[in-house]
Amino acid sequence: MKMTFRWFGESDSIPLSYIKQIPGMTGVVTAVYDCPPGSVWSEKSVARLKKAVNDAGLEMEVIESVPVPEAVKLGRPERDEYIQNYAATIKILGAAGVKCVCYNFMPVFDWLRTDLSKPAPDGSDSLSFDGEHMARLDPKKTALPGWDLSYTPEKLGELLDEYKSVDKEKLFGNLVYFLRGILPACEEAGVDMAIHPDDPPWDIFGLPRIITGEEWIDRLFSEVPDRHNNLTFCTGSLGAGRSNDVVRLAGKYAAQNRIKFAHLRQIKFFGDDGFTETGHRTADGSLDMYGIVKALIDNGFDGYVRPDHGRNIWGERGKPGYGLYDRALGAAYLNGLFEAAEHGN
Ligand code: DNO
């Protein structure tokens, strides 16, 4: 297991030197943010990022994310060009020592929350999702965290209309087409693709979401068995789907050697489908964090791990979910769980 920490590049307010001081930290999970979406990442940008990370005594073996353009998810005719660009980026990353690329295949929006700073009784605050609140929103009139703010309301409207002809089957077919297009580059470059589950794992605003649980994940691996087609096991995303037994799924996909990267995060359920992010401990939420870590270890997991979203604590006003303090506490706690699980307790 390699413990890592997400870092948003030079604009991140957290210095690499602080990340290095977290016990057991081996590297950062990062991305190039100065290349236009859909283009081939420049070798110069990748090399600069890697140098900054390595100079701080850290590794850059995981990229999160190389975004997949909407044209690819929609299956537009121009997707082939974007897929070629994606494959070229993978080769550049592989040459720079990157081993794993985390990506998602969610239409239009990435992760969604209805509250970025829900207060807790101890004075901390965190991200939260409330389905009833979400149901009252009009995507063309509101901007929520996780939304791509570069869309104008008109563009967003057009995109939402275009997705009306894309159901789950079509989206799945487009994912398979994308993977078949890039996997030869992954083989050549020694890079594992690790798809991130949809967050939350159900349809939003009528947009189809497919990486939501066991049925579709099994289908993905049976349709594209290539060994570079893998999973980012995100406990908070999968776990928000209450029918997903994350301990069992962690064991199952670790045994299949499909988990290359784990996002370990705690959530506490409320109402029918609501959840609030909490501290990482099992006792703080609804997921059995030790059970998850033990299932991973008992089934041979040896990939990258990162603490996922943290709360705002100690007066920090971090990037939502990505402050320093609570994620550092999460990493320390997770290191303890891994140590115990590895010793067979
Ligand atoms: C949220 C993250 C996601 C993730 C992407 C991967 O904090 O886990 O935004 O990076 O979905 O493409």
Q: Sheet with the most strands?
A: 8 strands, parallel, barrel
* The CATH homology group name: Divalent-metal-dependent TIM barrel enzymes
| CATH topology term | TIM Barrel
Q: What is the residue-mean pLDDT, rounded to a whole number?
A: 95
What class, by secondary structure content? alpha/beta
Strand order of the largest sheet: 1-2-3-4-7-8-9-12
Number of domains: 1
Report the top-level CATH class.
Alpha Beta
Q: Which residues sit in consecutive blocks of at least 5 with pLDDT less than 50?
A: none
The radius of gyration computed from the alpha-carbon positions, rounded to a whole number of angstroms, is 19 Å
Describe this structure in words.
With 345 residues, the chain is an alpha/beta fold. The chain has one domain (2-342): TIM Barrel (Alpha-Beta Barrel), CATH 3.20.20. It is built from 12 helices and 12 strands. The protein has helices spanning 16-20, 43-55, 70-74, 79-95, 131-135, 153-162, 168-189, 214-223, 235-239, 246-255, 289-298, 325-342; strands spanning 2-6, 25-30, 59-64, 100-103, 115-119, 125-129, 192-195, 229-234, 259-264, 267-270, 274-277, 304-307. The strands form 2 sheets. It has an 8-stranded parallel barrel with strand order 1-2-3-4-7-8-9-12, surrounded by 4 helices. Strands 5-6-11-10 form a 4-stranded antiparallel β-sheet. Helix 4 (79-95) runs parallel beside helix 7 (168-189). The longest helix is centred in the middle third of the chain and has 22 residues, at 168-189. The structure holds D-mannose (DNO). The site of D-mannose (DNO) has 11 residues, from strand 4.
